[in-house]
């Protein structure tokens, strides 16, 4: 029986992906995480568009090859990956050896489902959405390593979100939508129970 599961938590910027991911990794056994934001290229490698904005919200702004290699490293040896990332593995005195246990990888990011080589690695694809107004409000309070210049949200971030979401929906990937307007607790409970029943209780 399969014992390695990769779960995607994608969706709009400021939808609550990181918040949900942090809660899940605390509660799920043998759970590692890969954050897409960690694979951003350096600011001087980000293209400037005709609109004058640095194009942060496109797949070429990210080193997707490096991210894919990191995920492949987990697939090859989740125990080694967990140990080298400081993730505690379940105790082995009352269960099987670490190699025999179930392992979960959460991959979190805003452009997860727009990179063809990764589409077939996911056992489950979640996608958090929030409406324009709420997204703009949350984003206005957020500090990124490179702060948003005036007009970036309406001129680049939101249009790119709509474009990539449309492309994802055309790809026939099976995606479970999560309503990011629900409370953090509600979203977490929904996903935790879903993962439990789909991947953990069946073992
Ligand atoms: N369900 C929620 N309801 C209200 N605010 C939320 C919710 N989830 C996250 N937030 C807030 O929204 C902001 C962005 O959350 P974050 O998890 O960093 O989003 P993302 O990783 O999708 O960009 C943070 O200020 C966070 O506290
Ligand atoms: O992380 C960075 O270095 C960074 C630098 C510039 C911009 N970002 C923004 O990060 C956003 C994606 O991350 P998130 O957590 O909001 O989903 C995306 O909308 C980018 O515009 C992120």
UniProtKB/TrEMBL annotation:
One BP term from GO: pyridine nucleotide biosynthetic process
Biological pathway = Cofactor biosynthesis; NAD(+) biosynthesis
* Keyword vocabulary terms for this entry: ATP-binding, Kinase, Magnesium, Metal-binding, Nucleotide-binding, Pyridine nucleotide biosynthesis, Transferase
Is Metal-binding there in the keyword field? Answer: yes
Q: Which GO terms describe its cellular component?
A: cytosol
The catalytic activity, as recorded, is: beta-D-ribosylnicotinate + ATP = nicotinate beta-D-ribonucleotide + ADP + H(+); beta-nicotinamide D-riboside + ATP = beta-nicotinamide D-ribonucleotide + ADP + H(+)
**SUPFAM superfamilies given for it?**
P-loop containing nucleoside triphosphate hydrolases
Residues annotated as coiled-coil are none
The record's annotation in Pfam families points to: AAA_18
Q: Which InterPro entries match?
A: P-loop_NTPase
Q: Name one GO molecular function term.
A: metal ion binding
Q: Does the keyword Metal-binding apply?
A: yes
CDD domains referenced in this protein's UniProt entry, alphabetically? NRK1
Into which family does the record put it?
A: Belongs to the uridine kinase family. NRK subfamily.
Q: What is this protein called?
A: Phosphoribulokinase/uridine kinase domain-containing protein
UniProt organism field: Takifugu bimaculatus
């Amino acid at each position: 029986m399969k014992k390695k599961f990769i779960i995607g938590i994608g969706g709009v910027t400021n939808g609550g992906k990181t918040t949900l991911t942090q809660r899940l990794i605390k509660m799920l056994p043998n759970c590692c995480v890969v954050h897409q934001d960690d694979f951003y290229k350096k600011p001087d490698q980000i293209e400037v568009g005709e609109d004058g904005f640095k194009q942060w919200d496109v797949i070429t702004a990210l080193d997707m090859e490096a991210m894919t290699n990191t995920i492949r490293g987990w697939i090859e040896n989740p125990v080694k990956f967990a140990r080298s990332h400081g993730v505690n593995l379940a105790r082995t005195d009352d269960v099987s050896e670490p190699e025999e246990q179930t392992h979960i990888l959460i991959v979190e990011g805003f452009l997860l489902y727009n990179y063809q080589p990764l589409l077939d690695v996911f056992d489950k694809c979640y996608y958090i959405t929030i409406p324009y107004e709420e997204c703009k409000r949350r984003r206005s309070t957020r500090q990124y390593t490179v702060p948003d210049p005036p007009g970036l949200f309406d001129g680049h971030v939101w249009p790119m979100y709509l474009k990539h979401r449309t492309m994802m929906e055309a790809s026939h990937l099976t995606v479970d939508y999560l309503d990011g307007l629900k409370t953090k607790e509600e979203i977490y409970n929904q996903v935790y129970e879903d993962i439990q029943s789909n991947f953990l209780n069946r073992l």
